[in-house]
Task: inverse folding
């Protein structure tokens, strides 16, 4: 069974540009979660999508947005990139409202220069 | 929002020895779930063990066990017979059982575990 896949693995962008990160969940999982892992800050919750709808949002500005497609894959968009957006972005998936934790992807390393 | 605190930024253990990683959390909820995740240098987060708050029995998965103290809001991870492959960043996480709080995992800042031969 394929795990959670994220693309690209690495992404370098210039300040002010837009970045698009993609995530494909495990087959059968309808929930997708996005986290930002900046150095020394642990994992910060960004967004939760389930059945195509945004269900919950972390404490991030509106320039962080995303969507979930009918096949449950998801993309995260970061507009007007700032230097402090440089981080590892992790995607995870689960069955809806699962109490058994998530399965994570290996992340996209975003570097803003 | 619930706060998860890992007070040990770094820990070290010798191979074959036992180490305990600490985690405390702050919540007013009675229904919740706790997790330990491991993040090796490959960056992929791996679920180590989970605990339901309503269960008094501590969870165990092979060499990994937890000490869940609900009244003290403490959830420590014990690794027995440590192996070189256990070296990683370990994250404690909290998930509410209340739909109004959302079901996202709330993570601590992690403990870096070094295993020495």
Result:
């Amino acid at each position: 069974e394929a795990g959670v896949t994220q693309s690209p693995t690495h992404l370098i962008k210039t300040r002010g540009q837009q970045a698009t990160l993609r995530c494909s969940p495990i087959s059968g999982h309808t929930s997708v979660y996005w986290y930002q892992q900046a150095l020394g800050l642990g994992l910060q919750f960004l967004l939760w999508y389930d059945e195509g709808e945004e269900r919950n949002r972390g404490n991030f500005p509106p320039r962080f947005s995303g969507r979930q497609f009918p096949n449950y894959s998801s993309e995260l968009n970061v507009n007007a990139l700032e230097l402090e957006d440089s981080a590892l972005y992790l995607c995870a998936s689960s069955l809806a409202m699962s109490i058994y934790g998530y399965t994570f992807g290996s992340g996209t390393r975003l570097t803003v220069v | 929002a619930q706060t998860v605190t890992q007070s040990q930024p770094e820990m070290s253990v010798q191979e074959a020895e036992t180490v305990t990683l600490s985690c405390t959390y702050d919540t007013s909820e009675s229904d919740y779930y706790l997790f330990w995740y491991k993040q090796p240098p490959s960056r992929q987060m791996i679920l180590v063990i989970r605990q339901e708050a309503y269960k008094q029995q501590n969870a165990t998965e092979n060499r990994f066990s937890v000490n869940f103290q609900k009244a003290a809001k403490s959830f420590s991870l014990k690794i027995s017979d440590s192996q070189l492959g256990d070296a990683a960043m370990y994250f404690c996480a909290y998930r509410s059982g209340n739909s109004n709080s959302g079901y996202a995992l709330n993570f601590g800042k992690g403990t870096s575990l070094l295993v020495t031969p």
In short: The mean pLDDT of chain B is 93. The longest strand of chain B covers residues 88-96.
